[in-house]
Amino acid sequence: MKATGDITTATLGSFLLLLCVCSLRADYCEVNSCHNGATCVMGVGEDPFICICTDGFAGDTCNLTETGPCSPNPCKNDGSCEVIAPTRRGDVFNEYVCRCQPGFEGVHCQINVNDCAKEPCRNGGTCRDLDGDYACQCPSPYVGKQCQLRCIALLGMEGGAIVESQISASSVHYGVLGLQRWGPELARLNNQGIVNAWTSAGHDRNPWIEINMQKKMRLTGIITQGASRMGAAEYIKAFKVASSLDGISYVTFKGDGIRRDKVFVGNTDNDSTKTNLLDPPIVAQYIRIIPVVCRRACTLRMELVGCELNVYSNTTGCSEPLGMKSRLISDDQLSASSTFRTWGIDTFTWHPQFARLDKAGKTNAWSPAQNNRSEWIQVDLGKTKQLSGIVTQGAKDFGVVQFVSEFKVAYSNDGESWSIVKEENTGDDKIFQGNTDNNTHKKNVFEPPFYARYVRVVPWVWHERITLRMELLGCDD
Ligand SMILES: *[C@@H]1O[C@H](CO)[C@@H](O)[C@H](O)[C@H]1NC(C)=O
Ligand SMILES: *[C@@H]1O[C@H](CO)[C@@H](O)[C@H](O)[C@H]1NC(C)=O
Ligand SMILES: *[C@@H]1O[C@H](CO)[C@@H](O)[C@H](O)[C@H]1NC(C)=O
Ligand SMILES: *[C@@H]1O[C@H](CO)[C@@H](O)[C@H](O)[C@H]1NC(C)=O
Ligand SMILES: *[C@@H]1O[C@H](CO)[C@@H](O)[C@H](O)[C@H]1NC(C)=O
């Protein structure tokens, strides 16, 4: 009995001790030991609690006043502060200067320079002011940074630069007891003769004609024309357009800001031509005309209007920042597998919207909930663009240096089927070498560049936590 009693007492004792430690730990933040409006959070490891100081205070309990004209930083918009007179003196008006980020000016970098003020967009383009940059939205057929280029070459249906083997169709109509073949190779604008156009088979419920341009081109328009057979006019009254970069996944043209497929108005007789602009232009290798309403039969002669991508087709010419830093890529274009919250506090959430190169602040990067290879951050560029590189950067989480040292890149045109960037010679997934510290920009080049609307970065190896700020490089064309 005595022995049992001893054990009970000892157990109770250690239980009380445990209880005491527990409540003590809880008390660390219950009685807020942090000064000057700081936030107290339960500690990790050896520290029982941690104070997160408001601007202008420092020290373990935020009881020290940060001093000097640059503490707290009086410069706005990520401007950096430089002390020019270490002590306050009556005869010195300014004790510091703000060095502003591009696109900002004013004594405290408080003015966002209107980069559209000089009206850089030509030919009716509309200008959007960004942080340190601008973007022109060009009306078709104008393209280029300032809408300065006209993209209006005839691509060769009529002229013959597009050869027979590049043209295919869902079906072919055979007329006059099967002797006349109205094949897709005949669908050339102003083609002459008795059999001079493509016609789909009468039983074909989903007709289409496709042109493989054999490389990626920019298309700004389509010219269509009907034909006459046995003295009767046949033509396509309305059609849709689909395009593909790889001949496997196709996207139906929708037009800017419209959710539904665009239905183009086609022809009204056997001979006149109708020109439709593609606005915005399509970048694709394969283009399909999909008849929706046909008069008598789906009969077509046509031409494609567009231009080469060569304005920017080499990697030196196509490496503009695509807008993570300038915010051309808006917050709702960024998403991620998950987000991390430091100490579980909402205020310290590491949103994908924070993954912008050079972002400042206490939480200034993306970080996922878990550190594993299933996590990703995604950019929806809004439309297909050429991607030629990526710049990555780490960050600090309350003093802890964190970064992604190796990563993979995946891309997609529809947000559903993804390709991973491969090594050119081996065909293995390419592992990009990332950061080695909390701040340096690390640039990687995509060789060859690829075209995509959606891009994902998949962290592969990291230091402390997956933590990423980034910029994508490429061009519109
Ligand atoms: C700030 O608090 C620490 C203990 O947390 C104390 O040692 C120090 O003297 C305090 N400093 C001032 C300026 O109050
Ligand atoms: C076809 O077009 C030509 C030229 O516009 C016109 O003369 C002819 O009558 C048309 N034929 C039919 C069958 O509509
Ligand atoms: C790439 O394009 C730029 C701009 O058009 C041009 O100046 C440069 O010479 C080109 N470089 C190569 C390697 O073709
Ligand atoms: C990775 O983390 C996510 C949560 O963010 C989880 O759903 C998934 O199961 C984890 N995968 C592995 C392999 O641990
Ligand atoms: C983090 O980056 C800053 C800014 O470049 C640098 O001054 C600092 O030394 C870095 N810290 C560490 C621990 O590498």
From TrEMBL:
SUPFAM superfamilies: EGF/Laminin (SSF57196), Galactose-binding domain-like (SSF49785)
Signal peptide residue numbers: 1-26
Molecular function as annotated in GO: calcium ion binding; signaling receptor activity
GO cellular component: plasma membrane
InterPro entries listed in its UniProt record: EGF (IPR000742), EGF-like_Ca-bd_dom (IPR001881), EGF-type_Asp/Asn_hydroxyl_site (IPR000152), EGF_Ca-bd_CS (IPR018097), FA58C (IPR000421), Galactose-bd-like_sf (IPR008979), Neuropilin_MCO_CoagFactor (IPR050633)
Keyword Signal applies: yes
Cited SMART domains: EGF, EGF_CA, FA58C
Domain F5/8 type C: from-to ranges: 151-307, 318-475
Disulfide bridge map: C34-C51, C53-C62, C100-C109, C138-C147
The UniProt record lists the keyword Disulfide bond: yes
PROSITE patterns hit by this protein: ASX_HYDROXYL, EGF_1, EGF_2, EGF_3, EGF_CA, FA58C_1, FA58C_2, FA58C_3
Protein name: Milk fat globule EGF and factor V/VIII domain containing a
